[in-house]
Amino acid sequence: MLALIVRRLLSVIPVLAVVAVLVFLMLRLTPGDPAAVIAGDSATAAEVARIRASLGLDRPLVEQFAIWLGRLAALDLGESFYFKRPVTALIAQRLEPTLALASFAATVAVLIAVPLGVLAAYRAGSLLDRAVMSLSVLGFSVPVFALGYLMIHVFAVELGWFPVQGYARIADGLPGFLHRLALPGTTLALVYLALIARMTRASMLEVLAEDYIRTARAKGAATRAVLLRHALRNAAVPILTVIGIGVALLISGAVVTETVFGIPGLGRLTVEAVLSRDFPTIQAVILLFSGAYVVINLLIDIAYVLLDPRIRA
After folding, report:
1. Pick the CATH number of 100-312 from 1.20.1250.20, 1.10.3720.10, 3.40.50.970, 3.90.1150.10
2. Distance (Å, rounded) from C-alpha 156 to C-alpha 261?
3. Of the four, 9, 48, 110, 228, which is 20 to 30 A from 15 by CA?
4. What was the pLDDT predicted at 310?
5. Residue 187 CB contacts under 8 Å (≥ 6 apart), including other chains
6. What is the pLDDT of residue 59?
């Protein structure tokens, strides 16, 4: 098991290296000039050129990449072109809302989706099964921004149960924190929930058709024991896989959700940085998201070994 973890950790390095190169090249080869954005519409060509020189954008790409890589190795993410602040400080300021939103959405989605998927598989073909699958298809098909505006209209504007926008830090009190987080967190969770519920149902249906399940039932094992101890545990590997893959949904969904609900997190910071062509901030945030995605999938791989000892071989 230790060898597996070491191999997976070593594989993180080339993945992040490829991401770093691609992000760096894509930002500099796509149309748009950060110096022109900073200078404004009324700036002259000389002023734009001066700003480009001060930002180091007039140097060759290889030299720019080497400078950025050297700073990155020293854990220096550089200074934001637009915000004129260290990128590390910007990320530290915006990290809590994104972590809270993603954690809330993931927890709600898993706690609801897995039981729903198990029940849908156990009652396959029933009204419950059709209802769960219909809601899953609907939740996965509706764009996050449309779902967010619908939730705002119903629960914030019409019913007045939740605030329309904003975020309250957990240090200011748990009730206010949860009250502000409930609506955007549920909106983001619905898309993730739909994916997990569908995979849980499909995996459970496959396992419930196995001979050892029929044997357990024939021996008189309780339905709960058959579903949880025998079926769900053996169906857990593909469910964990889709939970890990679905992290990409949380990352992309967080960008939209934070914009819709006015949450000052990393997703909203990414949008602001893209609009202002803020290269250091965009590079740092994408690397952070990529690293989080790789680490979470590493944890999923470790969970495989714990759930199914045959994988160790």
Report:
1. 1.10.3720.10
2. 11
3. 110
4. 63
5. 144, 147, 148, 151, 257, 260, 261
6. 83
pLDDT tens digits for range 89-100: 888 888 888 888
Residue 278 DSSP SS3: coil
pLDDT at 198: 85
Low-confidence ranges of the chain (pLDDT < 70): 1-2, 4-5, 307-313
Q: What angle do CA 156, 160, 161 make, to 5 degrees?
A: 85
Distances (CA, A) of 105 to 76, 135, 259: 31, 17, 16
Amino acid at 233: R
DSSP 62-104: HHHHHHHHHHHHTT---B-TTT-SBHHHHHHHHHHHHHHHHHH
Distance in angstroms (rounded) separating the CA atoms of residues 268 and 143: 17
In contact, 253 and 144? CB cutoff 8 Å: yes
SS3 content of the chain, % helix, strand, coil (to 5): 80, 0, 20
| pTM, to two decimals | 0.80
